[in-house]
Amino acid sequence: MYKAFLIKYAEIAIKGKNRYLFEDALVRNIEYQLKNVDGNFTVRKENGRIYVETEGDYDYDETVEALQRVFGIVGICPVILVEDEGFDRLAEAVVAHVDEAYPDKHFTFKVDARRARKNYPMTSMELNAALGERILEAFPETKVDVHHPQVMVYVEIRPMINIYSTEIPGPGGMPLGTAGRAMLLLSGGIDSPVAGYMISKRGVTLEATYFHAPPYTSERAKQKVIDLAQKVAKFSGPIKLHIVNFTDIQLYIYEKCPHEELTIIMRRYMMKIAEHFANEGKCLGMITGESIGQVASQTMQSLAVTNEVCTMPVYRPLIAMDKQDIVRIAERIDTYETSILPYEDCCTIFVAKHPVTKPSLKSIKRSEQKLEEKIDELMQTAIDTTETIVVEA
Ligand code: ATP
Ligand code: MG
């Protein structure tokens, strides 16, 4: 019954002169998400509004789902657009909309009319009253309730008249591509895909780095990370993924350094290598799935020591979140089931029984001196042999 959707966006509206950039990005991202949906769609900007219009048959549910993945959208309103052909025709259209949208007429309602075009011959108040009356006449089972109506019937007088009564929530956030790029350290766990999703929701374009340690980690573990990247890419758009062979570095650290410091030292080298690719890709920051106190390598002391090697800002959107809240997001964005597949990730092979929970930078640096002979060469080899792929949803 609907041939169009009115797209509501909030935060974008406050961006002053840059507003059109945000709107244009939003239009592009909507077009991108609708590419794989059955139907012919046109996305149109009009006076601070975005409309998605359809031609011929289309899949309503798929369309709404696709729009719910577009960051920046606050609400998706299936809308009836009619020409202004006088009040009677408008009232007919409103009554027809109510009839089709609500088969059971036992509900309370309120009409909320607005005029973006002030030359319309009736005021908003007159429209509210007159349209309300027409609905009551057509469906005597309905009742008006101006305080807590079950159905709000919005009527907006614009170039075309907009009639709608449903607002499906969008994901919120900012349109992709409006905030620069960042490098996600993506592992096969639950947290990092969620962290990437959250930062990309702020309009940030994602790039990712994954460290594996063949043959200690399997091909399936690698495929799992690619699958996770693909799930995140459903929201974030294509992700350039760097797959770094970390085996020799890990073995070398294992050979030379105290085992309780392994994870921290490994983390520091991961950060350095990821930052190399981040610089190459003109990223403005890095993203991890760390959260205070979750494991030994994520105490404040450990985070400080890990962070010390980074020159770029490191964004940790999960820093203050509990696991169950992270899991809830993972389930919602459909990464959870993949994340919990039981393939070794490179850290679990080399974990110490009693990792340090309060590492001191001094002692870590002292341990790292034992790596001086070969570590630069190993890092260079890891960088040179990195496999880079583009993962698309
Ligand atoms: P996750 O669920 O994201 O794996 P985790 O709780 O298992 O997190 P850690 O293994 O301590 O935590 O990893 C902390 C963060 O370090 C991860 O969120 C991720 O950003 C990064 N990280 C860990 N292992 C890797 C890896 N093999 N490749 C890339 N990044 C990694
Ligand atoms: Mg992990």
Spatial extent as radius of gyration? 27 Å
Number of strands: 15
Q: Judging from the principal axes of the Cα atoms, what is the shape? A: elongated
Mean pLDDT: 95
Order of helices and strands: EHEEHEHEHEEEEEHEHEHHEHEHHHHHE
CATH architecture descriptor of the largest domain: 3-Layer(aba) Sandwich
- The CATH superfamily of the largest domain turns out to be HUPs
- Provide the domain count: 2
Helix content bin: 25-40%
H/I helix tally: 14
Profile the largest sheet: 9 strands, mixed
Distance between the terminal alpha carbons, to the nearest Å?
30 Å
Percent in strands: 15-25%
User: Which oligomerization state do the chains in this entry correspond to?
Assistant: single chain
Low-confidence stretches: none
Bound molecules: adenosine-5'-triphosphate, magnesium ion
